[in-house]
Structure formats: C-alpha cells, structure tokens
Amino acid sequence: MAETKLGKLADRLRTFSARPGTKIMEVCGSHTVAIRRFGVQRLLPAGVKLVSGPGCPVCVTPDLFIDEAIALARQGATITSFGDMLRVPGSRSSLERERAGGSDIRAVYSPLDALQIAATTQKETVFLAVGFETTAPVIAAAAQLAVEKKLANFSLLTSLRLVPPALKALISSDTGLSGFLLPGHVSAIIGRQAYGFLAAGRLPGVIAGFQAEDIISSLVLLLEMQNKGIYKTVNNYARVVRDQGNERSRSVLAEVFTPADAEWRGLGSIPGSGLALRPAFAALDARKRFAIHADSAPARRGCRCGDVLRGLIDPPACPLFNRSCRPDHPVGPCMVSSEGSCSAWVTYG
Ligand code: SF4
Question: Residue 230 Cα, ligand 1 centroid: separation in angstroms?
C-alpha cells in the first residue's frame, strides 16, 4: 500500500503536522459518504477534525416544504418527486405515508418524467423541485419545456438552494471552521470563480472529486494552505470543473429562476440562497396556483439535524442516533437520504 500513489498520499495525510483545532467541513453529501466509505476519517492527523456541512438537499429542506407537498396531495394534486423525498418526515406525516393512505404520489427520476405524467393524466401535477445548482438547471429546462408545450396542469413546488450563500452564512456564524472541502458536482456548474468570498473570510477551499485519491490529496492541500496562511480556492478536480463552470447550465438557470431568500434546516433564513421562478414562469409556481393549507406542527423534539448540518456536532452526539432514529426508521432527514450524515455514519461506521 505504501508503495502506491494512494498509499503515499495516505501516509502524507496521516503524518501531517497540522495546526491543533483544525476543523474542515466537507460541504457535499456525496463527499460525506465517500469519506466514510473509504475510511478517510481514520487517516486524519492529530488535531484535525472533519465535519459534515449542509450539502444534502433532502437534509436542508425544512419540514414546512414536506407539509406543503402533503397538503397539495390531500387537495387532489398528483405529486411527483425524487424518491428520497418520499421518506422525509414532515411535521406530522410523510409523503410515503400519504401515498399508503391513497394520495397520488409518484417517485420519478427526472422532472421530465413529471412532465410526461402531466401530459398523459391531464391531472394537476406538481413536481417537488429540490436540490442545489447541480439539479436546478434540468428543472429549469423542464419549466421551459412545460411553457413551450403549453402544459396547463404542470407546476413546481420549489425548494432549490444555492451553496455559496450557505457557506457565507456559516463563515459569519460561530462555527470555528478552518477550511472547506468544496463540492465537485455543484462546482462543475458554478465554477471555481464562485468561491472568491472565501479569501475575504481568510479560509482556504479545495474543490474535490469523489475518489479516495481526490479526497485525500485535497485534504493535504487544505492543510498545507492552512499552515502557510494561504487563503484561496484551489480546483483539485480539473478533469470536471472549470474556473467559469458550465455557462450554458447557468444561463438556462438564470432564464427561469432568480435568487431569493430561503429557509434552511439548521441555518435559518439565508439571503439570496434559494431560487424563485421569474415572473414569466409564475404560472408554474404551485404556491401561486393553489391555496396551500399546510398543517404544520412545532419542530420534532430531540432531532439535532440542524446542529449536524452546521458541523457543530457529529451524528452520534444526537441522543436518538441509531436508537429510535435509524435508516429503516428515520426520525430526521439526515437519516433518510443515503447522503445524509447520520445515515452515512450508521452505514459505514
Ligand atoms: S440521528 Fe436522527 S434524530 Fe438525530 S440528528 Fe440524525 S436524523 Fe436527526
């Protein structure tokens, strides 16, 4: 092992002389899973801690959004969604439970499948638009197609989120972070250019891919920059990410959506961190099309997802972790998605 490139990188990380109290956040849920699957956490040198961030779309979506989707289903609309969302608990029920109770709720792989359902059933069909900059362009393209095809029974219930404003909010709060392992997929859309604010916050960032070598080399780069007091964003995933990102995707996104304030689980309301439909697409906005009577309850007791998403605690610090909250019986959203930190900790140890 020590002879291979990966083995040498692993040795370099394990023996690195890092500043005590170094706290690095892996922003992306796919990184959380890869880190635990490859056992990278066991290579961290003394004084270095890796914490998960708000990069799992299911996890950061507030209960109210699920409550709204449930209300729409009860009002007779067909709800279409990526499969993960169905198991996320709302404040009183989940979409999975509502489906078992007879509501028309369907898991789809793409918003284009939802368009197809709308076209064939003629019923009011709502797609749950959840995700980050990676998913948003295809949802924007579906919105354009719905307008082009004059699909009058298709709409979007949006909870789309932007990563940079969330990172800015984390930096300005008391999270004690030393640097960011930046998401590969999101960065492929927004580009390295989107992280200029990290330098102003005197924090290094490294855009990383998802192989063990990508992650370990990126952590070494982060620790080296921290030791030298270099605060810039390095693209360590150049085979996929460009400085300018994907201009075509960003332009489709900007044609359909505009930044808006948005509520994040654990982080509260963050200015400009969500995406709202532009006036030209207002007819596709489920919140404008329907009077939604969401039946919300106070936040569930005991779940510390919000603290996990801010990197303040590791999942086992939650009293429900792997006891009453397990992947087969999730209490909070961080246990639902395979990309959720709590789920990754249970699955990979
Ligand atoms: S273990 Fe479950 S209840 Fe606790 S923070 Fe994670 S998701 Fe929430």
Answer: 36
Among 130, 100, 102, 98, CA closest to 114 = 130
Query: CB-hemisphere CA count at 13 Å for 205?
Result: 29
Q: Which of 142-146, 242-246, 251-255, 312-316 has the lowest mean pLDDT?
A: 312-316
* CA geometry: angle 57, 264, 316, nearest 5 deg: 70
Distance 327 CA to ligand 1 centre (A): 10
Give me the CATH number covering residue 71. Answer: 3.40.50.11740
Nearest CA to 310 out of 20, 59, 37 is that of 59
Domain interval for residue 120: 58-162+245-289
What are the tokens at 4? 């291979």
Ligand 1 pocket at CB < 6 A: 303-305, 308, 315, 318, 320-321, 325, 331-332, 334-335, 342
Residue 298 belongs to a domain:
no
Other CB atoms closer than 10 Å to residue 348's CB: what's the count?
Answer: 15
Tell me what pLDDT residue 175 has: 79
Return the H-helix or E-strand segment holding 158: strand 154-160
Does 196 reside within a domain? no
The count of structural domains within the chain is: 3
Residue 310 Cα, ligand 1 centroid: separation in angstroms? Answer: 13
The answer to whether position 312 is within a domain reads yes
Q: Is the pTM of this model over 0.90?
A: yes
3-state secondary structure of 161: strand
